Amino acid sequence: MKRIFLLLTVLVSFQLIAEDEEGGGAKDRVGPGKAVIAADKDKGIKLSEKALKTLDLAFVQVQNPHLSVPRSAMVYFQDFSAIYRLRDGWFRMVEVEPSINGEQATFSSKDLKQGDQVVVRNGSLLRVVELDVFGPEADACAD
Fold first, then answer.
1. What does the alpha-carbon distance between residue 113 and residue 66 come to, in Å, rounded to a whole number?
2. Domains held by the chain: number
3. Which of 20, 22, 26, 109 is least enclosed, having the fewest CB within 10 Å?
4. Secondary structure letter of residue 63 according to DSSP
5. Residue 99 lies in domain
């Protein structure tokens, strides 16, 4: 219940940020002055500085393709598990098959390279943002 409340709060916050920054209702959800400043089905989403502060994300830097992160970093949807990768300012969902050991999730992915960052806190909120931008077809966006 607490998680659902948090997700709804973030969604409403993004709507308020968009309305505040553009001075009215948000017809188009992407662009300058909005929470999501760029969106591309292949690259992912870019967020404004204000949106990044609101989401309060935390990251770990990828040193090699085999990574261990807190279990809470995982984003679950349909029958898939994923993480969010940050590369060149773009957040992109990457499907992974984690091995869960206690509170740690370990996985490797060809879609991660040295220098990428993986979201380890509040990644599920990025999923909400992505669905808001791309709509229901965002389910097909995982690598």
1. 10
2. 1
3. 20
4. S
5. 2-141
Backbone angles phi, psi at 41, to 5 degrees: -60, -30
What is the C-alpha to C-alpha distance for residues 135 and 121, in angstroms, rounded to an integer? 23
The enclosing domain of 114 has a CATH number of: 2.40.420.20
Q: What is the pTM of this model?
A: 0.77
Task: Single out the residue of 57, 36, 53, 58 nearest to residue 131, CA to CA.
Answer: 36
Question: What phi and psi values does residue 34 have, to the nearest 5 degrees?
Answer: -115, 165
Measured distance CA(37)–CA(109) in Å, rounded: 27
**pLDDT per residue over 17-57, tens digit each?**
544 444 443 347 899 999 999 999 999 999 999 999 999 99
* DSSP string computed for 13-58: HHHHHHHHHHTS--SS-BSTTSSEEEEETTTEEEE-HHHHHHHT-E
